[in-house]
Amino acid sequence: MFKVKYFEAVRTAAVIVIALIIAFLIISLVSDQPVKTIGIFLLEPLSTKGHIGNVIEMAIPLMFTGLAVSLLFRANMFNLGAEGIFYFSGVVASVLAIHLSLGGWLHPLAAIAAGSIVGALLSAIPGILKAKWNANELVTSLMFNNILFGVGLYLLNYHLRDAKAFANVSFKFEKTAQLSKLFAGTRIHTGLIIVLVLIVLAHLFLYRTKWGYELRMTGANREFARYSGMKTAKVIILVHLIAGFIAGMGGSVEVLGMYSRFQWTSLPGYGLDGALVAMLAKNNPLSVIASALFLAYIRIGADLMARLSDVPSEMISIIQAVIILLISAEQFLKFWKNRMLLKEAKEA
To answer: Could you tell me the superkingdom of the organism this chain comes from (predicted)?
Structure first.
């Protein structure tokens, strides 16, 4: 018998299964070879070393933004500003990667540190507005996304752009600024180690420190936390600083690990995807790893399916939409949870 403490894990698994079943039904209706197409979607990402590498490469930025958003959600802050911070911090890191000359590991370290610090400072602005004047963090963060994108695109077009290139891209990064690859034959870079360490540190911070406890209590009930003597305004600003730092580091790492020039002419989307990763992980830092890998896996599977079969990759949007709808539906399987609570109460 499942216990109540396992309910959320079982509920999340049920959501994923339902989303996949719906996707398979649609594939069966639109594909001439549905069994083969489903096989490509499910198994092709594991078929070669390169495809496995693609999954992990895509999961790295999702882990960064998923971790940042999960901390904000844990504090009951519905802030989606990781999108703009991820982008703009990539621009900041690119400036140092192009114009700074440092040897060895100092160059990427300086570029990543600059992007992370800028991300933290930018994220603090919606945090201060929320803590001091109770401004809606969703509205302010979404506005900041557009502002940061506009400023970043201006810097790319008028200060970083390589006029000799046949695209809207920056000058090439110095070789010393780029992150080294971990496995031959893939583009998996040292950013994987960085994000895994960050996830462990975030877990320890959340569950082993006084500040993490205050963050969780503020998220659970801000008024109760305030009357208990916790300085909730400081907690809100702190979590925004930490989340911005992580998102900024993610943008910097992604740019230096995957590219030789800055070439984002639109928001990359990882910040908004981070919200989905956080929802799947139930705002648990350690669960972010599995959630990011799952989302990356089905996206790579959808891309391979589009290339090797007659079903477009947009199929993945259906899966994501179903997951978001069911995860956010509080009443989904709640009857089962109530039944388990009554059963455990009787046994006690």
So the answer is: Bacteria
